[in-house]
What we know:
The complex is a heterodimer of chains A (408) and B (273).
Chain A: E1 23-27, E2 39-45, E3 48-55, H1 63-68, H2 72-79, H3 87-102, H4 108-137, H5 140-161, H6 183-205, H7 209-215, H8 223-228, H9 234-237, H10 245-248, H11 269-296, H12 313-318, H13 320-331, E4 339-347, E5 350-358, E6 366-370, H14 372-378, H15 380-383, H16 389-398, H17 403-407
Antiparallel strand pairs in A: 1-2, 2-3, 4-5, 5-6
Chain B: H1 35-47, E1 50-56, E2 59-64, H2 69-78, E3 84-93, H3 94-97, E4 99-108, E5 113-122, E6 127-128, H4 137-148, E7 152-153, H5 182-185, H6 187-192, H7 198-201, E8 250-252, E9 255-258
Parallel strand pairs in B: 2-5, 6-7
Antiparallel strand pairs in B: 1-2, 3-4, 4-5, 8-9
Amino acid sequence: MQVTNRLKPFFENITFxxxxxxxxxxxxxxxxxxxxQLRLILELQxxxxxxxxxDIGYLHRGIEKMGENMIYNEFLPTTDRMDYIAAxxxxxxxxxxxxxxxxxxxPRRAEVIRTMLLELNRIISHLFWLATHALDVGAxxxxxxxxxxxxxxxxxxxxxxxxxxxxxAVRIGGVPLDLPENWTNDLEKFLKIFEEQIxxxxxxxxxxxxWKMRLENVGILSPEMAKSWAVTGPALRGSNVKWDLxxxxxxxIYPELDFNIPISDKCxxxxxYKCYMAEMYESIKILRQLVPMYEESDTQLMAxxxxxxxxxxxxxxxxxxxxxxxxxxxxxxxxxxxGEVYVATESPKGELGFYIVxxxxxxxxxxxxxxxxxxxxxxxxxxLPGHQLADVVTxxxxxxxxxxxxxx
Amino acid sequence: xxxxxPKNDVQQKSYYNDRFYVTPTLExxxxxNDSTLSSDYIGFNNAFxxxxxxxxxxxxxxxxxxxDNVNAIEYLKTYRGYDMMMELTAVDYVAxxxxxxxxxxxxxxxxxxxxxxxxxxxNGDAINSVEGIFRMANFSEREMFDMYGIxxxxxxxLKRILMPDDWQGHPLLKTYPLQGDEAASWYEVDKIFxxxxxxxxxxxxxxxxxxxxxDTERFARLGxxxxxxAEISExxxxxxxxxxxxxxxxxLFGATLVTPFxxxxxxxxxxxx
Lengths: 408, 273
């Protein structure tokens, strides 16, 4: 680290004093293929990467600091801004952590709706990944097709909660709204179209010679390295580790659902691509199972826990004490028990965890968001050396990093 | 008399506390409640000093001495199958206990169990790096250093990660002010334009919701547009009603390109195509 003082100011650019003929390239933070504000300092020998150093922090907003100075309900919309491609998974991870802390379980219908939103969001996120990754590698038309289907999925999101990107559709203790009329029919219609469309994407890419040349044996991530770097999600499953929290340490209604965990033993970018594609099919399968579960469920949407969660609108408007308690919960906030909780959920990118230390006050004493992309970015310094400069773009795109959750 | 606010914790506090409210505490269960975790605990207890151990919300919590951290985590990885470290962070207890709690969150993919290893260090002490065991600590320990100012021994590249390299202070400390101080409000001006430009640019605007209707340089006046930089503060604010070019329809070489919207004539789709 540079020691700075008034006479010796800090130098932004790292000085490389060397006698060999390597070149230092500053990739980003405004590079379109950097998927956000990633600055990557690459040391090149010809076109081969000798050293890579990811520099992050360009999107740091202090979300954890904000969380420590907000009441629990107030922070929920802020979590949208972490992984903004899959906002519901952030909302859900946070809500689930608080529910575990206060010992409340969401009613069944709320849990079904949440899982629908989660899986729909997984499709949205994976489509976004495929679109941008294919665009980086040079397949322009896939980008257009993926974004068309993603629009349809986001229309469904909009029909439910009114927002397309930052949903905040989950609350601590349940969901605020029931599904609108005909939503499940629209969902079925979308799934039918979407299932056909994935076949088209796969037809364009899976056996495509250029796609295979660009992805096969690029970014080989051994299972040991993946575990050491705390890599999770499709990137870990692409490295032949069968680990999906929805199956291995299930939460919500996932134990009741029938789905598979796709894994690949290739450990390269192509294997991860296959995992992503298979996961979209699994999400369709889950969504199809959820529709009848929704219809059979009871209509309660928010958990009944007057100490922590506001009563329903109807109760509030008819019972004085419900309204008073609602005022207290809105102005002062809920006071969870003293203790610590770490709850992890499987977001589209990997394990999204919330570590919360509560000291019994309405503000969390410590709130740490474990965002999977943070370590996927750190991994770049180990995985990039030895690759060609063109492969750097493939690997960055393939690891599916989103800067909202890396910098927080 | 004004209430005393401690300077070592300047974070948001609740403004009202019921004197008779008893805060509940999460139940800390015995480690012997879970057979897998209890065997891990017994093996661990034979090798290292355990100050406290309990199960809290399905996590085995082990509180160890900070000098044992590297060996303890290596033991858990090699002999107990905790093959992934999911999270590494610190909790600031400087105000109450005079130090930090370092938290290691471990996961076993074979046993499907999670362990939280915690160690308390005094303010100003350093902790040894676990980067040699889990590479993910390379980034996490940098983040911990950046956010709390905790030095990590034997780290390969201990440097700020999220904040700029020349930043003063560590943001997640409880002593860190919630409003930026005087120096922070000039940070970007000094950095980008130099100190001489302070008079021209002014300090950073702290109120994110601030809208100045008379500032025609920085704020757009939708529907009430005036030329850029026009002086309108002295009561000469022009009345500019909204007008659309297309109001009477758009014509191109005599042919009608856009017909004006007629609510009675147009139909709305019943359902999405």
